[in-house]
Design brief:
Layout (H helix, E strand, L loop, with lengths): L1 E14 L2 E15 L6 H13 L1 E4 L5 E4 L6 E6 L21 H18 L3 E3 L7 E15 H7 L5
Parallel strand pairs: 2-5, 5-6
Antiparallel strand pairs: 1-2, 1-7, 3-4
């Protein structure tokens, strides 16, 4: 599982010319899922994301989490995070999860986030989406479940 987390001033997602999700002050998170991902991995990833201290405190240090600042979340499924560009010029997406499995975990991630954040918006799984955002910082973090699994080998 991969999360690309962008700290934003605002962001939105459009499908067929209609804004279906919009946030202010928080994260736009692009989520890639593969076939080896599980609910337990999703739980660990969500907890890590929600507790990252990347918002500034009164002294200007990145010391506050999304929860500390009552930040908002916009969650976007993005299978292209599993692009394999090693051969040729056309990326392969064979490492991306089966759509049924990926959608189920994406919906599970949304449910987990809604338990902890008051504003959780989302894109539409499998749709052609247009995402706009104003990256604050810029501040972008990539969470990869492979790294988290190294420190928690019993998760798999």
């Amino acid at each position: 599982m991969k999360f690309v987390i962008q700290r934003v001033q605002n962001g939105n997602v459009t499908v067929d010319g209609e804004i279906i999700g919009s946030v202010n002050h928080g994260y736009v998170v692009f989520i890639g899922i593969n076939d080896y991902d599980t609910e337990l991995i999703a739980e660990k990833m969500v907890q890590k994301m929600l507790h990252l201290r990347i918002f500034e405190d009164d002294q200007g240090k990145s010391n506050l989490s999304l929860k500390d600042v009552q930040g908002e979340l916009l969650l976007i499924s993005q299978f292209t995070l599993y692009a394999d560009c090693r051969k040729g010029n056309r990326p392969s997406f064979i490492q991306a999860g089966n759509p049924d499995h990926a959608n189920r975990l994406y919906e599970y991630i949304i449910t987990l986030c809604k338990k902890e954040c008051s504003v959780v918006q989302q894109g539409k799984f499998g749709a052609e989406m247009k995402v706009s955002l104003v990256n604050d910082g810029p501040f972008t973090i990539v969470l990869n479940s492979e790294e988290i699994l190294k420190s928690h080998p019993s998760i798999r």
